[in-house]
Structure formats: structure tokens, C-alpha cells
Write a structure and sequence with these properties.
Layout: H1 14-27, E1 41-45, H2 57-75, E2 79-83, E3 85-86, H3 90-103, H4 108-111, H5 113-127, H6 130-136, E4 148-149, H7 153-168, E5 172-182, E6 187-189, E7 194-209, E8 216-221, E9 232-235, E10 249-252, E11 257-263, E12 275-278, H8 284-292, H9 319-332, E13 336-349, E14 357-366, H10 368-382, E15 386-388, H11 391-402, E16 406-407, E17 409-410, E18 420-423, E19 437-439, H12 443-454, E20 460-462, E21 466-467, H13 469-474, H14 476-479, H15 488-493, E22 496-502, H16 506-520, E23 526-532, E24 535-536, H17 553-560, H18 562-571, E25 580-581, H19 592-613, H20 620-623, H21 631-652, H22 656-679, H23 689-710, H24 715-725, H25 751-773, E26 782-787, H26 791-799, H27 801-808, E27 810-816, H28 831-862, H29 865-888, H30 890-898, H31 905-921, E28 923-928, E29 931-936, H32 943-968, H33 971-976, H34 979-1005
Parallel strand pairs: 1-2, 3-4, 9-11, 15-23, 22-23, 24-25, 26-27
Antiparallel strand pairs: 5-6, 5-14, 7-8, 7-13, 9-12, 10-11, 14-16, 17-21, 18-19, 18-20, 26-29, 28-29
Helix pairs in contact: 1-24, 2-18, 10-16, 11-16, 17-18, 18-19, 19-22, 21-22, 21-23, 21-25, 22-23, 23-24, 25-27, 28-29, 28-30, 29-30, 32-34
Region (Disordered): 898-921
Catalytic activity: tRNA(Val) + L-valine + ATP = L-valyl-tRNA(Val) + AMP + diphosphate
Keywords: Aminoacyl-tRNA synthetase, ATP-binding, Coiled coil, Cytoplasm, Ligase, Membrane, Nucleotide-binding, Protein biosynthesis, Transmembrane, Transmembrane helix
Amino acid sequence: MTATIPNLPSLYEPFSTEAKWQKFWEDNQVYKADLNHKGKPYCIVIPPPNVTGSLHMGHAFESALIDSLVRYHRMKGRNTLWLPGTDHASIAVQTILEKQLKAEGKTRYDLGREKFLERAWQWKAESGGTIVNQLRRLGVSVDWTRERFTLDAGLSKAVLEAFIRLYDEGLIYRGNYLVNWCPASQSAVSDLEVEPKEVNGNLWHFRYPLSDGSGFVEVATTRPETMLGDTAVAVNPNDERYKHLIGKTLILPIMNREIPIIGDELVDPAFGTGCVKVTPAHDPNDFEMGKRHNLPFINIMNKDGTLNENAGEFQGQDRFVARKNVVSRLEADGVLVKIEDYKHTVPYSDRGKVPVEPLLSTQWFVKIRPLADKTLEFLDQQNSPEIVPQRWAKVYRDWLLNLRDWCVSRQLWWGHQIPAWYAVSETDGQITDSTPHFVARTETEAWEKAKSQFGENVKLEQDPDVLDTWFSSGLWPFSTLGWPEQTPDLATYYPNATLVTGFDIIFFWVARMTMMAGHFTGQMPFKTVYIHGLVRDENNKKMSKSANNGIDPLLLIDKYGTDALRYTLIKEVAGAGQDIRLEYDRKKDESTSVEASRNFANKLWNAARFVMMNLDGQTPAQLGKPEPTELSDKWIISRYHQVVRQTTNYIDNYGLGEAAKGLYEFIWGDFCDWYIELVKSRLQKDADPTSRKVAQQILADVLAGILKLLHPFMPHITEEIWQTLTQQPAENPQILALQPYPEADEKLIDQTLEEQFELLINTIRTIRNLRAEADIKPGVKITANLQSESEKERFILNAGQSYIQDLAKVETLTITDKTLIDEPKKPSISTKSAFKGLKAIGLIIVGLVFLRVGIIVGNATLRLPLFGTFFETVGLGYAGWFVVRNILTAEGRQKLFTSSSEPTDSQNISQSEATQTEESDNSIAGVVGTVQVVIPLKGVVDIEALRAKLEKSISKAEAEAASLSYRLSNPKFVDKAPADVVQGVRDALAEAEKQAEILRVRLRTL
């Protein structure tokens, strides 16, 4: 009975395959963490994307890195949990909802807080799952049963507990402080929600007169409207121009307020005039100077960006309208000096899309220094957490050293409402800066506290503000596991093994997590922080919304498949923490980088099909472990275990890109291009049964190992192939993701054999290249001669002779230690030839003597001077010509000495050399290390036709180079054409010149 041979479809279809396995993994809860698992815990909590977000390339890159690590450690036997979740994104959600309400002609105040929050939760239910569903398409191996949301009941409890504890310990306080204020959303925003933009602005110069009438000082500013809140002018105390003015006072124009001149080293003498206006309520640097010099803090701005009563005649005007009007007034008063064009950076609210305003505001703050100092102790004393790559540890440490108190309140409704209640009955029903407040877990608890102080008639109102989103995110590594309760998950999976995140949020998230964790749990939240780079576009620019140069990962997934995109993003990483570049054609929405990875997937698919078609329907387990006997078998087994060791070492040290590249080279090169080709003849039905069985065993065993090695990077295609290769049942199949990761057997690694086999591969490659250069047709078998003086090299060449002949189409192969092509020998002169030459010289001399005698006799006889001189001249001329032609030149002597005689030894040598030279000229040669490779061409190709073809190609390349060179010699083209066009021509010229040189070398070789 013939066994059924399982096989794969002829074409790999990534889209149906990926969807199938994503559904299977989730439906069967394949990645659900098991508390009873005996392995060492390995936990990663997902960096929570905003619930408003959609998948961008940064998400895809980070998720691919994390999933590769998680899948690897799961296969290594660890008790693995990758916990997913999303962030509630206060500002983003509120912005969306307020835009919807504005379209309806309403505001949130028309709905009221309760109805507004109902609408927010409805939006979350309908639209908030977009990013999660898109993450699913990446095939991430997360435990969806443990999915968290920063506003769910458990995390809300953790946030409340953290706030209460910090407040009770004196680490949270309410105070008046300078914050980033977004007039559009009318909320304080974090530094991360501020995007610096370079703008073309102005620098306004105006004069402040000295109070004593002795002169004035000139200041320069980019925000002239803020001068209405100035409370000083500052100079550097070491500035010789102004140090004598320190302590004097000025009259503030328009406001006619007397303000002091102070000395502060923060002032840069080189900026503007060296004198700076100080507005402590509207500038971070001025705020610090104001505290140092006990200056008044005058706020001139309302929360909507208009000016308030402290702005005098400009009250009620929008800040930018007021700017123009203030400048006009200064000009009218004669104190405006000049206006300069000035390019500078302005901070914009990422959500409100307007310039933020540094604003003095009463907010809730976390006293950061005690938290940061404790975190620094972990770093300095325990190197905890370990940061990879190490260079980012200094950046992290610098942030911790320079942190200021953290403003955690936001003037929003969507989020964790601050658990503070105000006794508004004590301040006329209003919440003011002086209204007494009570922090409590519930309103009842707060009322009990207030009643004890103000009696039963006290009226309370909860603080309307919510906490900064980063407050709840700072608790994420342990709140997601059940803290503040001591849950089994927390006991098992905390601290997390690894945090994978970008360098751009080291401060905004990483530092806040470590500070919160150090304070609340007494240990760092993760053992290692792996800092990755950014994905840059095809022009090596950072992808951003403002630059509009993002690349939609879903578009590439739809075109090439998830595995292809994942593998590309990981393979592009060259060293931990490095940015990667993704090639992308925006006109066609195509990527050559991702296409190359799809081709790699197809290569693996086709190789797997070939292997399975030649296993006679048997699985790797049925075939059994191989015992290699042949050279190629031992080589591929050694290479396989070498790659297992290499891949493991790379991943353990976060060299994911290097691991992916190493697998690519092994799978495509060693396994597909070489080993499969080498064993094809052994797989024939009439081949030696023992050899055939060994070849089958090795093919099956190595393929199964390859699928396991590659699975963390390309999970879908490897799962599909493995299921077929191992013939898993449709019901309750084993899953590749849960199989043990391969381990290297050091005894099977033979470095010497690998180096020797590399000689065979390079020899075959050289012969193939020479065939291509000589235009030898693929089906034509050739003669090849190999020469090496090394006995070791000749031994390995002889051992692999059949491989060379089979894969390079060589019919006759000679391996020798003799030189294959000698240098032409110089002609030699025999003794016999030399004697004949001397005899000839003697005859010539005798001939000349007789000739001279004849001339003399003739002259004496004829006696006529003219006639006699003529004969003498002719005779001497002929003698001179004979000597020059036959005696003075080597060629003449050779002809003279060898004329009128039988063929000599030298003639025989010349004929032999001519034959050898002809043979050399009709061969093509190459070198592999110290091995010389010669392929005779006579009778294989038409030498003259090949020479003519090469000459024609050389002429074409040279003509192209000349044309391009002419274009570049034209100054008009070089100066006026776009830079990328000119560079393109230069690149084309270099390519044409290189091609011409390669062709000339081929012609010379021929």
C-alpha cells in the first residue's frame, strides 16, 4: 500500500495562512500563561498604545521585537507571559469627543460630566478596539485573557491607592506652579505632549527707561505681549556692560510699573543685547529666576489664551492680537528700537495644535526628588535595571538627576478623577486656591474628615481635574498584575523580565515606572530595559505626523504578508538600539526591503515542498536521527549546530538583527542553495538505499530545526510548514510555538570541516562564474583544471570532486600541484647556431675586403673622378645597409644565424611555446584562495564571437560613460539641476566605468 505523501500547495499564500493561525492561536488560548508552569518566569507587559491610536510602523517594529523575544523564551521553556493592554489617552479621547460635540453645536458643559463620560465609554466600546485588532494582525503571542485598560476597575483601584499613599507621605501636594498650558484644550499638558516646531518669527527690541532718568536698557524678546507681566530685567553679573546697573530700577513701559535690574548667571550675554526681561509667570527660566530673587509673579493670561485684568488696556484680547497691539503701542511711545527676522523653536500642543503657553497655575504635583534619589540608588549600587545598550544608561541617569516636580493634574473629564474634595461651603461655593481640601478613597471618607473640621453642614465638591495619563502608566508593570493586592500573578511574574521601548520615552515612561515601582514595591519593575531605535523612512528621516512621512504597516502586510514585514523590521537592526531604514516607493506603495523578505519566505516554502516530496511520506520522527557519513552530510550538520549556537547567543544578548541575518544566510545559502542541490542525485529511486535514507533523515531533521529557529521571527509560515512536515492531526495538534527551541550539540560542530567545505563551495562558485563570463551554455559540460601547491587543499578538492563535477557541470576534472599556465620562455641560442653566426660574420668581412679591392681597381682603371666616386659610394652604402639590417638587431641576427640551415632545437622550442601560448589564450582562469582554476574554452565556445561580443559591450559602456561625463562637465547642468538628479548621473557614471573595467578584465583574461 502506497503511503500518502503530505505536501504543501505549490504557492505560499500568506494572507489565508496568517489569518488561520492567528485565529487558531487565540481561539485555543495557546499563549495563556500558566501559573503552574515549572519554568522560570519571563514576563513582558506591552507598552500600552493609546486607545485612540491606529497601528503605525513604530508599533509594528516594537511589537515584532517583543514577540520575537517572547516566542524565543517560551520555546526555551520559560513560564512566559506577554500581557497586552491599552492606555485611556485622556487628551486624545477628549479631543475627539469635543470635536463631535462641536459639530453638533454643543460643548461638554452642555452634556455635563456624567453624560459626557457615558459618551466617552460608548466611543471606547465602538472605536477603541481598532489598535488592538490591528495588533492581532501582527500575530503577537499575547495572553488576551489578561488584557488590561488603564481605566478598568483593577487599574483604577491601583491609581487611587498610589495617589492616597503618596499624599499621606507628603509626596503629593497642591501648589501654584508654571506648567505647559494648551489654550485649545484648556489643560496642562506633559512635556511628551509638546512638539517643538521651528518657525520664522521676529525678535522685537525695545527700551526700558531707568527710573532716575539716566538712560535706558534695551531688551529683546520673541513674545512682546508678555512684557505686561514683567517684574524685572536681568543681566549677567559678569557682563562689564551692565554690572554697574544691578540694583537700579526701571519704569516698565505701558504699565508704568517700577521694576528692578537683577544679576543672574542664567543670562546669556551673547543673546540679543545681553539684557533680558523677566516674566516669572510666563517663562520656565524666568520662573526659576523669580524664585531665586523673590520677584512678584504676575499672570496676565486667561486659560483660553486671552489676556486678563492684569494686562490693563489689552484685557480680553487674544494673545496674538494683543501681541500686535502691544508692539504698536510701544512704537507709538517711541521705545520700539527695531524688529528682526528670527527663526526659533516654538513648543506646540500635540493635541490642540496651537503654541503652548507657560502658565502659572494651581495644580497637583508629585514631589519627585525622594522618588528619583531612590531610583538612582538602584542604578548606581545594583545596576538595576540593566539598560541595553549601555550608552542609554547615562541618559536615563541624567534625567533622574535633573527632574523637577511632576505636575499630575489635567483639566479634563476623561481619566482618573483626582480623589480630593473641597469644602466649597468655606469659600462661597467656589473652588479657589485657598479652599480647604480632603484627600480620600471615597466621598464618604472625605465627608467624615471634613465634618470633623467644619461640622455637619459642610458642603464638598470633588476636584474636577483628572490625573496625567502617565501617572497610571507609571504603575503599569505591577498594576496590570493585580497590585495593590498580592495576587498570584504579581507573585509569579513581577518584576517583569524585560521592557522593550524606544529611546524617545526614557524619561516620560521608563523613569516614571522605575520611580513608582521603587517606591511602592521596593524593587525595579524589570530586570532589563532594551532600548530600540526608530524606523526611518526611505530618505533616512524620522517618521512623524508633522512630516507626513509615515508608512502604513497594514498596507505592507496586505501586499507582502505579516511575516515578511516582521522579518524585515528585525533583520534591518544592526546592533541593539540602532535606528533602521525602510526602503519604500511612495508612488507604488512598494518596499524592496519587505519584498526581499517575502522572497525569502517563498524560498523556504519551496525548499520545504521539495524536502517533503522526497521523504516517502515519513515524518522526521519516523525517519529517525541521522548518522552522517558523507562529507556534505557532516558539513550541513556542523553548520546547523553552529547556527543554533550563534542564534541563541545573539538573542540572549539582544542581537535580534544579527540573529535574523544569520538565519537568512544559513537557510537560503547553506541549506537551500548548497545542501539540497548536493543531495538531489542521492534522492533518486535508483540511488543507494543507505545513502538515500541518510539524505532523507538529514533533510527532515535540519528542516524541522530550521522551522524552530526561525519561528520567533516568522511565526505563521513556520507553523504552517511544521504542521505538514510533522503530520499533525487536524484535531488537537501540537503547536510549533510550544516546541523546545533547538540546542547546539558542540560535538557535531567541526570548524575545520566547515572551513574546508567552504573551499569546495567557493571553487564551485568560481567555476560557475567563469562559465558565465565565457558565455558557456548551462547544459554544456566542460573540462576544469585545478592547481594547488597545498596538499591539504588538494585533499579536500579530491574528497569533494563529485560535488564539483555535479554542481559546476564538469565532465573532466584535473587536480594537480603543477603550474597550469607557464610564462612564455625567452628564445635560446644553441652552440651550433652561434658557430654558424661567427662563420657568416667572417664571410661578410671577406666580402667587404674584396668589394673594397674591386672598387680600387675600378677607380684605377676608369680614372674618371665622378664615375669612380659613384661606385665607391654605392659599395660602401650597401655594406652599411647589410650590417645594420643583419648584424645590429637581435631579430636580424636570429634570421641570419638560422637561414640556409636545417631546423634547430630552438625552432622546436618556439613551436612548442607557440602551442602552449595558444592553449593559454584559449582558456579562462580564476583563483580561489591559493587554488588556480583554468577552464579550456577551445571547442566549448566560439572564441572570436565571444571576443567580439565583449568588445562591443566595452564600446557601449565607454560610450555611456563618455555621455555621462560630458553632462557632468557642463556647469549649467551641475549648478541648476536638482542635487538628487546630479548625484544620480554621478552614480550612473561610476557604474558605467566600473562595468567597462570589468569587461576589459574579462577580455584580457580571454
